[in-house]
Design goal:
Length: 334
């Protein structure tokens, strides 16, 4: 009997559903929420409402694309934490109802563990032990993975996440939310060595990005006072310089983590791993340090249900199921 799992992701502002059969992803449907753009960030209440509107058509389409009948499902999985509680509740209630109606096991999944396991959806896959740099809008972590379900966070941000650093810098430049991809786009035509932003000296494997945001704020104030159209005239060089600094901060800690653990199987995950500068840096540093590097396909980098499905597959094989009275939580360690 094949193991067919329907997985639902609704932790932030993307409603996603995926179907996985014996570890092979058959569909991954993602509905974004344009409603937040005008507010410059995700509005939690609007996100919950949009999830409610999207979830039935998204699940329907995921099942259809996978050519899967409800009766063929072996389990239903959902993102349990971390995330916006209202958003998580929509996905968890839906998944619980479905598991109850179909009389199949329910599997709660940790979103950050799932981001890491996005690296195991396609071949080639990292060998264990491996290190994963997970960089998203809410998290920045270096994770030591001994097996699919045995992971330890060995470094993390003490303030802003890398994605937040991108988004907040973009906001200071007058770019719309989420600004990360736009900084990336402008950076392609810019000189990354034109402006130098400070690198914080944080001990160990932890990160800090809040100082960078302040440095950029003062830098822009100073230069705008001298030249009103400073940002417009230099947008490519400013974005390239900001991107280089964020990427360098990330890569220096990853090099340190690899040296300290002796691990050279290196992967990245999370929305920021879509960044072209980070992808290129991973290849360059990888060649320098003899790493085997892994980067998930673009659609598995940002929030998606395929990574929840992949994690659920491993949990199913390990018999790790959740009771029907389990609750989602906004924050949780893994
Ligand atoms: O993992 P994700 O989709 O959602 C969270 O769980 O946070 O990550 C979203 C983050 C946002 O901060 C977004 O600006 C950033 O990933 N991001 C990028 C790029 N694409 C997405 N940042 C820089 N360059 C990109 N190309
Ligand atoms: Zn995420």
């Amino acid at each position: 009997m094949p193991v067919n799992i329907l997985a639902i992701e609704s932790s932030c502002d993307d409603t996603s559903a995926a179907v996985i059969a014996d570890g092979k992803v058959l569909s991954n449907v993602i509905a974004g929420q344009a409603v937040h753009e005008q507010y410059g960030g995700v509005v939690p209440e609007l996100a919950s409402r949009a999830h409610q509107e999207n979830i039935v058509p998204v699940v329907d389409l995921a099942l259809k694309k996978a050519n899967m009948q409800l009766a063929d499902l072996s389990a239903v999985a959902f993102t349990q934490s971390p995330g916006l509680i209202g958003s998580l509740l929509v996905g968890s209630c839906f998944a619980k109802s479905m598991a109850l109606a179909l009389d199949v096991p329910l599997i709660g999944v940790h979103h950050m563990q799932a981001h890491v396991l996005a690296n195991f959806i396609d071949d080639p896959q990292p060998q264990f032990p491996c290190l994963c740099l997970t960089v998203s809008g809410g998290h920045t972590q270096i994770v030591l993975c001994e097996s699919p379900l045995k992971m330890t966070v060995i470094g993390e941000t003490m303030d802003d996440a890398a994605g937040e650093a991108f988004d907040k810098s973009a906001k200071l430049l007058g770019l719309p939310y989420p600004g990360g991809p736009l900084v990336d786009k402008h950076a392609r035509d810019g000189n990354p060595d034109r402006f130098r932003f400070p690198e914080p000296q944080i001990p160990g494997l932890n990160f800090s990005f809040s100082g960078l945001k302040t440095a950029i704020l003062y830098f822009l104030q100073e230069n705008r006072a001298k030249q009103a159209d400073f940002v417009e005239a230099n947008i490519a060089d400013i974005c390239a310089s900001i991107q280089l600094r964020i990427v360098t901060i990330l890569m220096n800690k990853l090099v340190k983590a690899s040296k300290e653990t002796g691990i050279s199987e290196i992967c990245i995950a999370g929305g920021v791993s879509a960044n072209s500068g980070l992808r290129k840096a991973l290849e360059t540093y990888g060649a320098q340090h003899n790493w085997n590097v892994y980067i998930p396909k673009f659609e598995y980098c940002t929030d998606n249900a395929a990574m929840i499905a992949m994690t659920a597959h491993y949990k199913y094989l390990a018999g790790e199921f959740s009771p029907l009275d389990t609750v989602p939580t906004a924050r949780a360690a893994f």
